[in-house]
Amino acid sequence: MQKMHVLTSCVLLASKVWAQTDVEYQSWMKTAVATLASLRKNIEAKQGNAVAADAQKLETTFKQVEEFWRKGNVEDAVNLSRQAESAAAAISKAGLAGDMEQASGAVKNLAAVCSSCHSAHRERAPGGAFKISMAILPSVPAAAQERVSPHEKTSVTIDGRQITIEYGRPYVKGRKIFGELVPFGEVWRAGADEATVLTTEADLTIGTLKVPKGSYGLFVIPQADGWTLVVNKVAKQWGAFSYQKSEDLGRTAMKVATAGTPIEQFTISPEAAGPKKGVLKMAWDRTVATVDFSLK
After folding, report:
1. Of 15, 94, 120, 269, which sees the most CB atoms within 10 A?
2. 53 and 157 together in one domain
């Protein structure tokens, strides 16, 4: 149940930052914190109907939060609010089914959303003070509403066929990345915001995995001594929040090495490595993960 405490802590932290917004918004956050505490107890007690009721209350709360941010045109916060709603709905469904393990997993997703939302807000207000209020939201400059992590398309052409990666590029910003910000042993979106998308005009073999031409979601499972690359048949999804293993095309191993110098911004590079051959590289902080691929 450690994840439940993480979730409560995330929302408590966020509520302190949000305290400078309007009274109604503060009220929503107080409701969320109180409901999360109740949810934790009910999951521990395996009270499915009570879990569902708490989750439905959270879903309603985050719908109000979404509308708050929609009025201010704050895209990433709107998207994060939607993800919180989706996670709350999943908790409710699991509660009604009596599946406490599934409910705890959905809570983990909600914790990640809350943490990301808190980070996004903190980015907008240097020094940790979130200064955007209901009255001034519509006049926030466009630059302040840009994504926290820039998005990029990178591609390589091999044998006349293009392989493209589209992904979000978060920064280190003094944080410990792998093993903390990105936990070991868990599915990660390999970037920021939406899931990373691989589009290939050629049939590929990535590591040991055969990948027909098309578009796919790319995820990774980092470990200290090696990563696993996950190719998922659902290309368009938000992060790993709705990721389903049952939709995987397959998985393959990636080698890891230590970077000679720290890499501040997460970088994915598909590179040519000979006729009909290439290497897919992911690098961030002190870690570089690679896997060879070939074209049919």
Report:
1. 94
2. no
The amino acid at residue 94 is: A
Q: Could you tell me if residue 165 is inside a domain? A: yes
Range of the domain at 36: 2-140
**Cα distances (Å, whole numbers) of residue 205 to 35, 66, 162, 208, 280:** 48, 41, 15, 6, 12
The Cα diameter of the chain in Å comes to 63
- Helix (H) or strand (E) segment spanning residue 198: strand 196-200
Q: Work out the number of other CB atoms within 10 angstroms of the CB of residue 1.
A: 11
Q: What is the distance between the alpha carbons of residues 271 and 291, in angstroms, rounded to a whole number? A: 11
Q: Are residues 187 and 81 in the same domain?
A: no
What is this structure's pTM? 0.56
Percent helix, strand and coil across the chain, each to the nearest 5: 40, 30, 25
Return d(Cα 42, Cα 30) in angstroms, integer: 19
How many structural domains does the chain have? 2
Q: 174 and 133, same structural domain?
A: no
Is there a domain that residue 22 lies in?
yes
The burial class, CB within 10 Å (0-12 / 13-18 / 19+), for 89 is middle
Among 125, 175, 179, 114, smallest CA distance to 148 is for 125
DSSP state of 140: S
295 three-state secondary structure: strand
* Same domain as 108, residue 89: yes
Please give the chain's pLDDT, 296 residues, in tens: 444 444 444 444 444 434 434 455 556 666 776 777 777 778 878 888 888 888 888 777 777 766 766 665 556 566 767 777 777 787 888 788 888 877 777 776 666 666 555 555 444 433 333 333 323 223 333 333 345 678 899 999 999 999 999 999 989 988 889 998 888 999 999 998 788 999 999 999 999 999 999 999 999 999 999 999 999 999 988 777 678 899 999 999 999 999 999 999 999 999 999 899 999 999 999 999 999 999 99
